[in-house]
Design a protein that fits this description.
Elements lengths: L1 H18 L14 H25 L5 E2 L12 H4 L6 H6 L16 H7 L2 E16 L7 E16 L8 E6 L2 H4 L7 E8 L22 E3 L5 E4 L4 E2 L25 H6 L5 H11 L1
Antiparallel strand pairs: 1-3, 2-3, 2-5, 3-4, 5-6, 5-7, 7-8
């Protein structure tokens, strides 16, 4: 009997110890919620970061540049900007205005032309298409051609519709211009055709046209590409012996306006782009 009594006393003591434990030990263990919550917070943070990147990429801010898969590398390397494309000269020569033609805007320095532009882009040509004939219905209508650009960097100003294609209009024939398509990049000083140049007022009685779908160069001074030995303006009028004193020859030497003289002092397009970024 003594052995039985001893066992009963041990069981009673064990029961008393368990009965005196805190209540938390008598209920099912609580699930650990913090990893799931932390994951939810982390997911929210990731969404915010991605959304911020997406919004930033959609804006056209000065100095903004396309990036390579979000890795922070410029989409266009200096070596690509500086690649000389032999197709550029004949392509842009077909877009040049008539020799001696007057222009609404002329500038005395690269800085003035750059700061006057509505938007300045580093861009490549992706297509050419016929746009309009003006005046509409006239037998003497002038045909216009649209050069479609893919911007890779906005150096100054902003586009009216960020993300939309940029069509720069010139007088010309689309089929002839399309005969030699350039593959390199250029610096384009543009103004939307729906905007008047600074200080210019519309002529009384002038027909109202909605031209906001198109851009134009600020003047023939507003385009630069990589030449064989230095930056060139491929649409500027030059004096050349082959043309009897006037004509278009991006690589020729001859009278140069002050904007071209400044820009063409740069041996590489990437150097000009870096200079314009600093100009602000």
């Amino acid at each position: 009997m003594n052995g039985v009594d001893d066992r009963l006393e041990r069981h009673a003591a064990r029961w008393q110890r368990e009965a005196s434990l805190p209540e938390a030990r008598l209920v099912a263990p609580r699930r650990r919620w913090w990893p799931a919550a932390a994951l939810a917070v982390a997911g929210t943070t990731a969404v915010v970061v991605v959304a911020t990147v997406a919004v930033t990429a959609g804006r056209d801010e000065p100095g903004e540049v396309a990036r390579d898969a979000g890795r922070g590398r410029p989409a266009v390397a200096a070596a690509d900007l500086d690649r000389y494309d032999t197709a550029a000269a004949p392509f842009f020569a077909r877009l040049a205005g008539a020799p001696g033609a007057s222009e609404a805007e002329r500038y005395g320095s690269l800085r003035d032309a750059y700061r006057s532009a509505g938007v300045v882009l580093v861009a490549e040509v992706t297509g050419v298409r016929a746009t309009r004939s003006l005046p509409e219905g006239s037998r003497d209508a002038v045909s216009y051609v649209g050069v479609v650009l893919r911007p890779v960097e906005v150096l100054r100003g902003g586009l009216r519709e960020p993300g939309a294609e940029v069509v720069v209009e010139f007088m010309g024939d689309a089929e002839a211009v399309r005969a030699s398509m350039p593959t390199g990049y250029g610096v384009w000083l543009l103004r939307n055709k729906g905007d008047l140049p600074p200080g210019v007022v519309p002529k009384p009685g002038a027909p109202a046209l909605d031209e906001s779908a198109y851009y134009r160069l600020v003047s023939s001074q507003g385009l630069f590409v990589q030449g064989a030995t230095h930056v060139v303006n491929p649409v500027r009028e030059r004096a050349t012996p082959e043309a009897g004193g006037t004509g278009i020859d991006p690589e020729a030497t001859g009278p140069r306006d002050p904007v071209a003289r400044e820009a063409e002092a740069f041996p590489a397009l990437s150097a000009l782009v870096a200079h314009l970024r600093q100009a602000g």
